[in-house]
Amino acid sequence: MNSTAKKQNRILLVTLVVILSAAALLIAVTGSANKKAKSNEEPPVETFAETKTAETTAKPVKPAETEASEDKQDMTSEPAETEKPEKSSGDTAAREAAAIQNDSLPRFCAPVNGMVLKDYSDDIPVFSCTMDDYRTHNGLDFACSPGTPVYASAEGVICEVDHDPMMGVTVGVQHSGGAVTRYMGLSEESLYLTQPGQNVKAGQMIGAAGDTALIESAEEGHMHFELTVNGEYKNPADYMKVSYLTDVYED
Question: Which of 192, 228, 209, 191 is nearest to 108 (CA)?
């Protein structure tokens, strides 16, 4: 091989080395650039609001054992009974006594110092001198002259002070036990002796006998007295001690 060929071969070898070195350098530079670019990529940004919302809306998960225990407790537990305070026997007795007293009829006495002129009759009609016929008589007629004091037959409250078209001046008294007594045919002055709502005691004067009862104007001087219990007429003689004029005449 001559010197010219050797020289050409060295040139080719050097050129090849340079090319390989350049390729290696290019590969190294490219790899470094790719790595740097990858490291500089920004990760997806998650806003603080989204993170916070996710944290606050997420519900805590209870362990299965705890939930089962709570469900079992709800199914088996019963509401505790409220203890009622025991009533004092003294208070109970007082209330019962008050109830009995309020439901009991009072003890009645005759409303005037006089005897019974005409008896009570709700089933057998009796003769009426004024009306000239036979009719029932729902009260007692106590014989007395006009002006004779009329007394409350028992403790109570005045419930009526009126002038009835047929029975004249009337005073009513409400008593315990649903009882009401009415005093009829009183004098005109009796309208001003009491007033509705006034408390009266047994034996307290509430009027005076008169002659204002038109339907009994032909009868002898008397005061018509009635008793009702819960709205039903009762014979006053069954609740008080009275005397009859017929007994005197028979003797």
Answer: 228
